[in-house]
Structures are given as structure tokens and as C-alpha cells.
Amino acid sequence: MTTASRRLPLEDRLPTANFGFAGADLVCDWTGCLYWPAEDLLVVSDLHLEKGASLAARGQLVPPYDTGATLRLLADRLGHWRPARVVSLGDSFHEEHSSGRMPERYRAELAAMMTGRDWVWVAGNHDPAPPAGLGGVSCEELVIGAVTLRHAPRPGWPGPEIAGHLHPVARVLRRGRSVRRRCFATDGRRLVMPSFGAYAGGLGLREPAFDGLFEEARLRAHVLGRGRVYTIAGTHLV
User: Fold this and answer.
1) Which domain holds residue 159?
2) Residues 6+ apart with CB under 8 A from 3
3) pTM, to two decimals
4) Which of 4, 43, 199, 209 lies most in the core, judged by the most C-beta atoms within 10 Å?
């Protein structure tokens, strides 16, 4: 066992991680969604629905079943948390016109999830226009109390801010091996959400795209495992 793995602080091995953010108590779910109890709000980011179909249409041999898998997981978490409101934080669809091309069975599943609750579509770089014929409210960004929710984090923004777009991934050393997992990344001023989509992929927190977004001394990665969330100090990320 290496020194780095001996010192790795796995502070929490529960299916969720609770933490304070801008005076609010938030809950990271192991699947990659965020629950805000005081607002009865569930936040997801970067669903990238119909990515598989988009790639297949371009000749890439990828099974186009990611939309069904993503929607099943989303329905499961909605059943678990039962939120009154849902915010999808941009890149909900992989392409601007993907919502209109989505098979009817998936549109019906999504419509059923939206029934009886407020639903907000935040515009992303992949889907800047409102989804076609799906209802809900569309916006560029959403402000709740002191917190701004938007698709891409804005460098220099004083915060507090919840964003997606970058698909953060944490890499740590465990027992001499490198482990790479999706994560929520936060320093208490900014929170960057993991991607929720089945084919969305991820970007390492040490990549240049994250430079300057977090205060290193306060950075925490809530790392997503199988049914568990592990909270790791930023100083232990590689």
C-alpha cells in the first residue's frame, strides 16, 4: 500500500453525501443527481439524451440505448426523492433537434416524469433552444435565493454557483492503483455537477478546463461509487 492510499480520507461511504452550500443543506446522490431539501428540488445535468442515436446516424457503431438507460435511472431517483421541482442543467439533449427526434416511447416516459411537478430546462451548448413539445419552462439560467444555476461555470463569477458542462471526474490512488470516477466538485462557493447521461463521459479535475474555478484548500470531490458516495479532499486528487 502506498503512502497516498494509506492517507486517503474516505470520510463518507453512504449512498449520499450531505454538505452545506451558500447556507443551504444539499445532498449528493450516488447516481449523480443533487437534492435540495429546503426547495424540494432535484437537479441533474448533462443527460445528453439521444447521444447514441446521434452517433449511430454518423456511422459510429454505438448501441443507441443510452436514452432508455438514462430515463430509467432518472425515473428511479424521482421515485426515491419525490421532488416537487426538477432542474435539468443544460445539455439535456445531445443535439439541438434531438428532442424532436426522440422515439415516442421515450417522450411518453419523460412526460410521465414531468406530470405533477415543475420542470425547468436550462439551455446548454448542445441544446440552446427549448425542447420540442415537451413542456416545462426553459431559461438561460435560474436564480434561487443567492444561488445561480447555469449550464457552464463562469470563471470569475463571485458565486455561489451550481453548474454542469465540464463532467468532472476525480482520480485518486488506491492500493497503488489509479481509480477514476465521476464526482461532484465544490469549494463551497461553486459546485460543478457530474454528468447524468449514460454516454456522457467525463473530464479530470486536474485538466486545464478547471483551472481557477475552485479554491484548492477548500476543494472537495464527492466521488460516485456503486451505491456509495466518497468524500475526498482536493489535496488527495491526482
Assistant:
1) 3-236
2) none
3) 0.90
4) 43
